[in-house]
Amino acid sequence: MTFALALEQLLNGLQLGVMLFLMAAGLTLIFGVMGLINLAHGSLYMVGAFACAAVAAATGSFWLGLVASLACAAAAGAIIELLVIRRLYDREHLDQVLATFALILIFSEGTRWVFGSFPLYLDIPPLLQGAVALPGGAQYPVYRLAIIAAGALVALGLYVLIGKTRLGMRIRAGESDREMIGALGVDIRTLYTVVFALGAALAGLAGAMVGALQSVQVGMGEPVLILAFVVIVIGGIGSIKGALLGALLVGVVDTMGRLLLPQLLTLFFPPSQAGMIGAAAASMLIYVMMALILAVKPRGLFPAAHA
Amino acid sequence: MLLDVSKIEASYGASQALFGVDLAVAEGEAVALMGRNGMGKTTTIRAICNLNPPRAGSVRLAGTDLKGKPSHRVAKLGIGLVPEGRRCFPNLTVHENLEAAARPGSWTLERVNALFPRLAERHAQMARSLSGGEQQMLAIGRALMTNPRLLILDEATEGLAPVIRQDIWAAIRKLKAEGLSILVVDKTLSELLPVADRCVILENGKSVWQGTSAELTADVQDRYLGV
Ligand SMILES: Nc1ncnc2c1ncn2[C@@H]1O[C@H](COP(=O)(O)OP(=O)(O)O)[C@@H](O)[C@H]1O
Ligand SMILES: [Mg+2]
């Protein structure tokens, strides 16, 4: 294995990690602040991807599509929060899981109804087409680097929003004492709608960006949702910092595992078997990592301080 | 009247805790809400703020009926609450606790820091690491940051060392001198009475005596407040 290949896969791992972070940030914020398990978060990812693909196809502009994905996912998030989600905050997790699972079905069938069963395709915008040379000689797509950069920007933006702004302080205050922040004049219901829409917009952004790498289709959100749950459990539920670290960890370990494990196993098995066993083992790797981390830190890497 | 509470009743689930409480606070006045443990002082305050909305009677703030208004609306109409147990946000710094509550008005971070220099010294410290007295200062500062017309303090100095209590009372006197209206609950009569213009005593969820601090004779104290 060459240095160039390893670097390329590392970047792929980072890109997957960034994507997972965009999903996990909303998921962990919504769980941490409102105590809600939202299975429909993957549907918001799908909404973002479809909105971007549809608007880009209609206007010819990926960038308008990207704006549309943010707007549509945020709007979809706000609407389901107002109609459904806010009735679930005081309910048990099982009720939340059932209701948000129902939302997945509604979103999936609704999308199939509007767009049909065939996948949509989204082109990489001209500005971000092409590749750059990596040290070592390999070529790496500019678009994937742009995804990593976008993720870094979002992470920075969230850090400022949650850590430095009055809105962020109120969100964190509500996390520890919801009644008290209300008694100080903060409309907690509206605050929750805002948080939910924000998380939805980030999921939509992730969906839109990935849409240009894969096909845009119904059901695309759920595999990502499962990984995002692994991420927030590893990172510590409620912690944005944990979501960032967990996402990068899962992204890099998963990608590098798929590269390295089959090669490692050629030491013990004939090449054809090593490939198969290695691939199977690699797909379990992040779950093994999750189990190990939880064995040492049962509440994840950065447990929310108040819980 | 700034605050006008009339015949309110309130319950916790099936068990009724208030059976008719009347009290009023005029503009610029400090009123002490008194009564032995469990007589309904906290419940009255929570009912006023619509944290436990009263099921009968009425609460008016500067003429506005608070009935059906969520607690954040009540706060915006001008009630600043310093709750029993202080309830600072432990996961926020001192500065953030104040900032989170801020609404436009004459009370700013600078003024709160001037009122409680100890808070200024600890502005970057997590609220959970403060002493009880500092937490109470923070809870008062936080309520002031909402720029209230009426400040309500439930157990203003409970559990605090005498020196710190003096600081808290000095701050309350200063606020009163500036014209802020105050409704205050505290167990230490010798410190409470000099600040209060009037007193309202609760017994078993009812207001049973009202008068000026001067009228609160030893007899009245024995009858309603003695242990
Ligand atoms: N959360 C609650 N649930 C049920 N009963 C309560 C609750 N809080 C207070 N009470 C009851 O209501 C009555 C008044 O309590 P409270 O208002 O806390 O009194 P005070 O503040 O004067 O000590 C008491 O009988 C108390 O037992
Ligand atoms: Mg009490």
Share of helix among residues of chain A? over 70%
Radius of gyration of chain A: 20 Å
Total count of helical runs of at least 4 residues of chain B: 9
Distance between the termini of chain B: 33 Å
Number-wise, the strands of chain B total 10
Q: What is the CATH H-level superfamily of chain B?
A: P-loop containing nucleotide triphosphate hydrolases
Pattern of helices and strands of chain A: HHHHEEHHHHHHH
Q: How helix-rich are the residues of chain B, as a percent range?
A: 25-40%
Strand content of chain B: 25-35%
- Strand order, sheet with most strands of chain B: 6-7-8-3-9-10
List the helices and strands of chain B in order: EEEHEEHEHHHHEHEHEEH
Radius of gyration of chain B: 17 Å
Multimerization status: heterodimer
Mean pLDDT of chain A: 92
- Contiguous low-pLDDT stretches of chain B (5 residues minimum) are none
Shape category of chain B: globular
Which architecture of chain A does the CATH hierarchy give at level 2?
Answer: Orthogonal Bundle
CATH topological fold name of chain A: ABC transporter involved in vitamin B12 uptake, BtuC
Helical/strand content category of chain B:
alpha/beta
Count of domain modules of chain A = 1
Overview of this protein structure:
The complex is a heterodimer of chains A (307) and B (227). Chain A is mainly alpha-helical and 307 residues long. Chain A has a single domain, classed as ABC transporter involved in vitamin B12 uptake, BtuC (Orthogonal Bundle), CATH 1.10.3470. Helices cover 74% and strands 2% of the residues of chain A. The mean pLDDT of chain A is 92. Chain B is α/β, with parallel strands linked by helices and 227 residues long. Chain B has a single domain, classed as Rossmann fold (3-Layer(aba) Sandwich), CATH 3.40.50.300. In chain B, 35% of the residues lie in helices and 26% in strands. Chain B has 9 helices and 10 strands. Chain B has helices spanning 41-48, 71-77, 94-101, 109-115, 117-121, 132-145, 162-177, 189-195, 218-224, and strands at 3-12, 15-25, 30-34, 56-61, 64-65, 79-82, 150-153, 181-184, 198-203, 206-212. In chain B, the strands form 2 sheets. In chain B, strands 6-7-8-3-9-10 form a 6-stranded mixed beta sheet. Chain B has a 4-stranded antiparallel beta sheet with strand order 2-1-4-5, covered by helices on one side. In chain B, helix 3 packs parallel to helix 6 (132-145) and helix 4 runs antiparallel to helix 6. The mean pLDDT of chain B is 94. At the A-B interface, helix 6 and helix 7 of A face helix 2 and helix 3 of B. Adenosine-5'-diphosphate binds next to strand 2 and helix 1 of chain B.
